[in-house]
Amino acid sequence: MLLHLSSSSSSTSLPSSTVLDPLFLYIDEHQNEFVQRLREWVAVKSDSNDHTLWGEIHKILNMTANRIQEMGGQVEFADIGTQKLSNGESVALPPVLLAQFERDPNKPTLCIYGHVDVQPAKKEDGWSTDPYSLTEINGNLYGRGATDNKGPVLAWLHALETYKASKQEVPVNLKFVIEGMEEVGSDGLDELTRQRNESFFSDVDYIVISDNVWVSKRPALTYGTRGSSYFFVEVEGPKLDLHSGVFGGSVHEPMTDVITLLGSLLDHTGKILVPGIYESVAPLTEEERKLYKDIHFDMEEMKNNIGVKSFLQDNKEEILMSRWRYPSLSIHGIEGAFSDPGSKTVIPRRVIGKFSLRQVPNMDPAVVERQVKEHLQEVFAKQKSPNNLKVMATVGAKPWVANLNNPEYIAGRKAVKVVFGVEPELIREGSTIPIANNFQEVTGKRVMMLPIGGHDDGEHSQNEKISRYNFIQGTKLFVAFFYELSKLQKDQ
Ligand SMILES: C[C@H](N)C(=O)N[C@@H](Cc1c[nH]cn1)C(=O)O
Ligand SMILES: [Zn+2]
Ligand SMILES: [Zn+2]
């Protein structure tokens, strides 16, 4: 058990408003500069899905490092090895940025994780504005990465800047882990965490992540995320694409095989048809069921926001449970299939179906991978196709859950109350932060999630945004969180 005693000069002995009000004022007065910095960050096309853009990831990591150094931090770019591309070529992965500031043994040490890579985005995908030019419309800041995750990473840096510029002692020791490969599964970061467990992570008391969104207009604390495995199902047949008029009806078409395989994965209710997949799903407890009742989630508003007529479930609790505490499978695409405008009439020789399976406590990605592969091989065998089938899995991220009674969550609740004047919603998250569970398992340190993104931010979608309100109030939340964390007397 660690005891963190407040130093006598520390601001934690003063009433919270005396400490925080001037800091909040600084944030309000400097908000245009903060938005401008977000504009500069969004302009960097740091899409980790496209290795030809990894130079942009280096660029944004350098910008992050420069900002940290300007505030007195020490930075290191940690090498995380190479990745093999589909053409067999090996390329160096962008490094992970590790940063720390001078340490005071009387203060708790908070390690902040975030990522500065983004999902792909093109104007022609249907964006209303250029995805890489941050555009403010009606109080919303539109741009790829605005909420996922450049805005929140900057908000942490702005929170630190606020203390420093206001000449107030930062009440916690800070460390940063900033990566550029989260959107493709955080390759190499788990190994780095293992390597640095006895050094960089040894004096860390808490790890905090702000890389998800609220579920309503109310602020939230997140206590769980789903895990994920990403699958590639490849079928290869003839040695060339073929004329469908000449060969159609006489050959086993790879596309037909892939569509049959993809079609065998789930039914029209969203139920996953892979045998055994639900076997280890953690049972729903009464205590957990109660948490869902109090959550504010407006089904009609969400339907309007995303433009659907109905959900697969018809009440709030079931929708949220399906998103957060049950597995789901989504089909993402078929590589090699004809997808341009026009009416080309070929039979593609090789196609790759892509899908992912989100996993929940107590599922194990290794078991899921075996179950999925066995299922696909069985279905394929029934097709009696002479084509070649290959199934590959990547990501393999475990789900993560935390205990809401942990002291860092108490500090988070207080910080939310101070900034927003309400109690936070206690939520889980359907998407995946691949490193969350690893951090917890490898370092033994507790992980907490403190989101600042809005429920309608549209991460990964066209017109992703963060509102100016969330970006600025979120910065205040982080300032208040540092303060509340420093007031905790015990780390148990
Ligand atoms: C929640 C986070 N902002 C995010 O978007 N994570 C990605 C991580 C991932 C999973 N598979 C590959 N990358 C996500 O949930 O899709
Ligand atoms: Zn993210
Ligand atoms: Zn993302």
Automatic annotation (TrEMBL):
Details of cofactor binding: Binds 2 manganese ions per subunit.
Marked site positions, Important for catalytic activity: H243
Gene (UniProt): CNDP1
PROSITE patterns, alphabetized: ARGE_DAPE_CPG2_2
GO cellular component: cytosol
Family named by the database record: Belongs to the peptidase M20A family.
GO molecular function: carboxypeptidase activity; metal ion binding; metallodipeptidase activity
EC number(s) stated in the UniProt entry for this protein: 3.4.13.20
Active site: D117, E182
Enzyme class: hydrolase
Reported cofactor(s): Mn(2+)
Pfam family of the protein (one): M20_dimer
GO biological process, one term: proteolysis
Keyword Cytoplasm: no
The keyword Lipid biosynthesis belongs to this UniProt entry's keyword annotation: no
Binding residue positions for Mn(2+) 1: D148, E183, H460
Entry binding sites for Mn(2+) 2: H115, D148, D211
Domain of life: Eukaryota
Full protein name: Serum carnosinase
All residue ranges annotated as the Peptidase M20 dimerisation domain in the record: 223-381
Entry keywords, A to Z: Carboxypeptidase, Dipeptidase, Hydrolase, Manganese, Metal-binding, Metalloprotease, Phosphoprotein, Protease
